[in-house]
TrEMBL record:
GO BP of this protein: alpha-amino acid metabolic process
Keyword terms of this UniProt record: Pyridoxal phosphate
Domain Tryptophan synthase beta chain-like PALP: from-to ranges: 87-386
Family matches, as SUPFAM superfamilies: Tryptophan synthase beta subunit-like PLP-dependent enzymes
InterPro entries: Cys_Synth/Cystath_Beta-Synth (IPR050214), TrpB-like_PALP (IPR001926), TrpB-like_PALP_sf (IPR036052)
Cofactor dependency: pyridoxal 5'-phosphate
Name this polypeptide is given: Tryptophan synthase beta chain-like PALP domain-containing protein
């Protein structure tokens, strides 16, 4: 089925549902649901007090599909909820090789997937077009997103591109550059004093005004819109292609509530099932405070971990999601805590290599150093880090 939307003076943007989508399933209990908008995750798990995200399910013959032509994310449409969706040219970001850093680390190779080269400068641009596609299919007129910055700018930009309204709820410490950019799209920007106030405000707008939520608004949280999270699978697809059949041993991912971590894991799993790779990389969640680190050590994933305040705002917050725990367990991965001082050193070191990542993204280099020192990453291994956002807007 095909839907079109006329956005003011913009050309009509069209979405086309993938006919192989069969429904949604809970990533924790496995219960299957018909397609729809279950904004608070799995109803069965939520009722039991164990919030869990949903994922999109596809017909089993999807593994035989070939990728399409072109270089944008849309070439993977047969593996996504929508074969056609409104695009600003996201995807096909470079995998940059840093041999000097590999030598310094003492590993076989060290590469960075530079997501800062997406249209609004971060990996969030892989999420937004599919989430917007779902909103269009649902007949929504206004989107709402809680964000420290990157997601807000991305969602606002894709909403503007498609003639949709948008409300971005962020914090008072949002920097001036991001404020101007978000407001410049025509989005309404609401600034709150405390991070959790964003979720309360967002819930009210969803329940009272019927706005379409891009991100979570309950506590304990679930992941963001499951249709949008599917876009992160394409990072794994591209890594498989760009490696020429070589799959890394370790992939480091800056992590807050693990949408990106889960999506990358799903992408690698799908390529494994399709016979395009032989082993799963071990995933590393890089975080500014011990959240997933604590859960892997035995603590309850539903609790709050300190107050979540950190200058590494893109990966801040005091909660985790089940999807983060599951992604690390399924890949035999780990979590690593990196604080601001180490992140700033890593950011400077990367800039001297020619790459300017925001500090939250630069944590991946600091984490690699720690894990090599602990011998969790071995000298013969190939390592890829996800550079989630460039630093120019921060």
């Amino acid at each position: 089925m095909i839907w079109s939307l006329q956005g003011g003076e913009s050309p009509i943007h069209t979405i086309q549902r993938n006919p192989r989508v069969t429904g949604l399933s809970c990533i924790r209990c496995g219960v299957l649901y018909r397609e729809g908008d279950l904004f608070t995750g799995c109803p069965a798990c939520l009722k039991k007090g164990y919030p869990s995200s949903l994922k999109v399910e596809y017909a089993s013959d999807m593994v035989r599909e070939n990728d399409g032509d072109g270089r944008s994310m849309m070439r993977y449409g047969k593996w996504l909820p929508y074969c056609r969706f409104p695009t600003l040219g996201e995807g096909d970001t470079p995998l940059l090789d840093f041999p000097r850093l590999a030598d310094q680390l003492g590993v076989a190779s060290f590469q960075i997937k530079d997501e800062g080269q997406n249209p609004t400068g971060s990996h969030k641009d892989r999420f937004s077009p599919l989430m917007v596609g779902r909103a269009m299919e649902s007949g929504a007129g206004t989107l709402v997103v809680a964000s420290s910055g990157n997601a807000g700018l991305s969602v606002a930009s894709y909403a503007a591109f498609n003639g949709l309204g948008c409300v971005v709820i962020s914090q008072e410490n949002l920097n001036e550059g991001l404020r101007r950019a978000i407001q410049g799209t025509g989005a309404e920007l609401i600034l709150m004093k405390h991070p959790l106030e964003r979720w309360h405000t967002m819930r009210r707008l969803v329940e009272e005004k019927g706005y379409f939520p891009a991100t979570n608004y309950i506590k304990p949280p679930v992941g963001s819109n499951p249709y949008g999270v599917q876009g992160y699978k394409t990072i794994a697809y591209e890594i498989c292609e760009q490696g020429g059949g070589e799959v890394p041993n370790v992939v480091l991912v800056p992590t807050s509530r693990a949408d990106l971590l889960w999506g990358i894991k799903e992408g690698f799993h799908e390529r494994m099932r399709a016979g395009r790779m032989r082993h799963l990389p071990r995933l590393v969640a890089v975080e500014p405070i011990p959240r997933l680190t604590a859960v892997l050590a035995g603590e309850d994933y539903r609790k709050a971990f300190t107050d979540g305040r950190t200058p590494l705002r893109s990966i801040g917050g005091n909660t985790v999601t089940w999807q983060g725990v599951a992604a690390l367990r399924e890949t035999k991965g780990c979590a690593m805590v990196i604080e601001m001082e180490e992140a700033q050193v890593a950011q400077s070191d990367l800039l001297r290599q020619g790459l300017y990542l925001e500090s939250s993204s630069a944590t991946v280099l600091a984490a690699a150093r720690r894990l090599v020192a602990q011998e969790w990453i071995r000298t013969e291994e190939q390592v890829i880090a996800i550079g989630t956002s460039h630093a120019w807007k921060w």
